[in-house]
Amino acid sequence: MKTLAETFLTQQEQNTITAKVQEVELTTSGEIVPMIVSNSHDYPMATVHFSVTVGLPLAVLFTMLIGAQFWIGSQNMWLFLAFFAAHSGLAFFLVSRSNRIKALFLNPKHVEKEVVNSALAAFYKEKLYKTRDENGILIYISVLEQKVWVLADTGINNKIDQKEWDSVVKDLTTGIKTGNKCEAICEAIQQIGLILKKHFPYQKSDTDELHNLIIR
Predict the structure, then answer these.
(1) How far apart are CA 215 and CA 141, in angstroms?
(2) Which of 41, 63, 87, 136 could form a disulfide with 114 if both were Cys (CB 3.0 to 4.6 A apart)?
(3) Is 196 helix (H, G, I), strand (E, B) or coil?
(4) DSSP assignment of 95-142
(5) Domain range spanning residue 79?
């Protein structure tokens, strides 16, 4: 079964994005790396939250109906616990296999923190910090959360403030949420390229040091 990241873009869209990176990198020595990941965290509490939200009211309802019908008692604690275990277990099974349901129960503050931390970890894992001019830049897209983060290396940060990427993140996030994924990613690459080439113009000695698209 394919992951969220693997189904996020078609093969043709992946080829289009790769070509766009190669095109833009002919105008700047900066190394642009779009990265698609399925999720930035497992979010176990979201699964627990959904299980309790579904299991608790159903357990109460079934205890009242079944208990009264069979003269066990409409408030029988053991019957309630049995129904709660059964319904919450079923809910746990469903949400563990449905990213759409899990996404509804994510804590926004937790999500923001995990996406940033995961983007930072990916930056180092994929060795974006090892470019010759310290000018690698990661476009990190976490599919489950529909979140984007742009992270640049030291050479870029010394010349360009992180706030420069805010509009790129905003436009790309909107594009993803409205279904224009490929177009939005290509536009983000174009915008980043325009910013980078002012400070990091293309040089004949430049080589393609990093991946043009990463899917994890």
Answers:
(1) 10
(2) 41
(3) helix
(4) HHT-HHHHHHT--HHHHHHHHHHHHHHHHHHTTGGGSTTS-EEEEEEE
(5) 44-104
- Do 115 and 10 reside in the same domain of the chain? yes
- Give the tokens for residue 91: 């809910």
**DSSP string computed for 38-82:** S-S---HHHHHHHHHHHHHHHHHHHHHHHHHHTTS-TT-HHHHHH
pLDDT in tens, 74-86: 677 878 888 888 8
Report pLDDT digits (tens) over 200-216: 998 877 777 778 899 98
What integer pLDDT is reported at residue 26 of this predicted model? 92
Reading phi first (left if > 0) and then psi (alpha if -120 to 50, else beta), residue 146 is in left
Residues in a beta bridge with 35:
140, 214
Asked if residue 71 lies in contact with residue 31, where contact means CB atoms within 8 angstroms, the answer is: no
Judged by average pLDDT, the poorest of 4-8, 50-54, 184-188, 210-214 is 50-54
Instruction: Give 99: exposed, middle or buried? Use CB within 10 Å, 0-12, 13-18, 19+.
Output: middle
| Same domain flag for 134 and 78 | no
Q: Based on the domain organization, do 127 and 159 belong to the same domain?
A: yes
Task: Tell me the residue type at 177.
Answer: K
Report pLDDT digits (tens) over 94-120.
Answer: 777 767 777 777 888 888 899 999 999
Between CA 62 and CA 109 the distance in angstroms is 35
Query: Residue 53 and residue 120: Cα distance in Å, rounded?
Result: 33
Amino acid sitting at position 72: I
Query: How many domains does the chain fold into?
Result: 2
